[in-house]
Write a structure and sequence with these properties.
This protein is α/β, with parallel strands linked by helices. It folds into two domains: 2-174, 3-Layer(aba) Sandwich (Rossmann fold); 185-325, 3-Layer(aba) Sandwich (Rossmann fold), CATH 3.40.50.10490. The protein contains 15 helices and ten strands. Helix 12 (209-223) runs parallel beside helix 15. The longest helix is centred in the last third of the chain and has 19 residues, at 307-325. It is globular and about 55 Å long. The relative contact order is 0.15.
């Protein structure tokens, strides 16, 4: 896990080297389609990437984006009217029966299917109308890292090509270098509050919510740490009451309109005695959070769209180290397999 997360930038470099023309063509095809809605379909880490895709598509392309429930087609056998819709299937292996059933149902219901997949020979690739290769290469650890980060990079490039957003395209061009810089950042200050913790909230908002979901999952599967992800707004609707001494919170912020609310939450929780760790703040906000007692984790200054990729990569390094400190093998989580096939 540690080695694979460290080399995730190589996957993005490979995408930039090989897929520019293909992604530009897919972007043009999506513009021609002018989808009335986008449906994402994924499980696990790939579904967290789909959360990121939702916010990216709705804020950049202005198109309603919703997550499919695979069991609607794979278990209930119900077909929906998806004429004029773009159906984005995201998978590392591209082999899960429920995902393939959903893709087949979507195509028969009139959708255009776009697959993001890390296995070029997967059934998902053959079934899709459009394909973006993740180019993460072989991933040995059960906990997916580089394929997840490669998915986010591919999604940015897709939306940039679709919307003809040159600023977004430029942000990705510099991403591999930023990822290498991010991997060198020291998040070890978060280890003491987390080493003996039994519960954790991981908090983000907007573009950063998927990053929070992904970090929480990795804490569960590799560290034996019960972690749940929440929007910083949703946290106040009930879950907030559980936070206190011995129940820490890890917060992610990106430099957009959501940052002030995440920073305010960090300060509020810190003053209540909650062990708060926060990453992604600008300098003035970071100083306010630090003054309130929060542990401010270092981050690279970047755009709001790129920030979740860098924050997750730093989180991967922290979590791989934390797993070992808690006595777990992060590469071989109990009771899990690399390819999960659900119906």
């Amino acid at each position: 896990m540690f080695r694979e997360a460290a080399c995730a930038s190589d996957a993005v470099r490979a995408q930039l080297q090989y897929d520019t023309a293909a992604i530009a063509a897919i972007g043009a095809e999506v513009r021609r389609l002018a989808p009335r809605a986008v449906i994402t379909c994924a499980r696990g880490s790939s579904d967290h990437a789909a959360t990121y895709a939702k916010y990216l598509i709705e804020t950049r392309a202005g198109v309603l984006t919703a997550s499919a429930a695979p069991s609607v087609s794979s278990v209930y056998g119900v077909s929906q009217d998806l004429r004029g819709c773009l159906f984005i299937a995201i998978s590392q292996s591209g082999r899960s029966p429920d995902l393939l059933a959903s893709v087949a149902s979507a195509k028969s219901a009139g959708a255009t299917v776009l697959a993001l997949c890390n296995s070029p020979d997967a059934p998902l690739v053959s079934a899709a109308d459009l394909v973006i290769q993740l180019r993460a290469g072989v991933e040995t650890s059960v906990a997916a890292t580089k394929s997840y980060l490669a998915t986010l990079a591919a999604l940015i490039r897709l939306i940039a090509a679709w919307t003809q957003d040159t600023a977004l395209e430029s942000a990705v061009e510099n991403l591999p270098v930023q990822m290498d810089q991010t991997w060198a950042l020291d998040w070890s200050a978060a280890l003491p509050p987390l080493r003996l913790a039994e519960h954790l909230y991981v908090v983000g908002r907007g573009l950063g919510l998927g990053a929070a979901q992904e970090a929480a999952l990795k804490c569960k599967e590799t560290c034996g740490l019960h972690a749940e992800a929440f929007s910083s707004a949703e946290l106040r609707h009930g879950p907030y009451t559980l936070l206190g001494e011995g129940f820490p919170a890890l917060l992610f912020a990106q430099r957009d309109a959501t940052a002030s609310g995440v920073e305010a939450l960090a300060c509020e929780l810190s003053r209540r005695g909650v062990a708060v760790m926060i990453a992604g703040l600008q300098d003035a906000q970071a100083q306010d959070a630090r003054s309130a007692g929060a542990i401010v984790l270092p981050s690279i200054a970047t755009t709001a769209e790129v920030a979740p990729i860098l924050l997750v990569q730093s989180a991967y390094r922290l979590i791989a180290t934390l797993a070992v400190r808690r006595g777990f093998d992060p590469d071989r989580p109990a009771h899990l397999r690399k390819v999960t096939e659900t119906v």
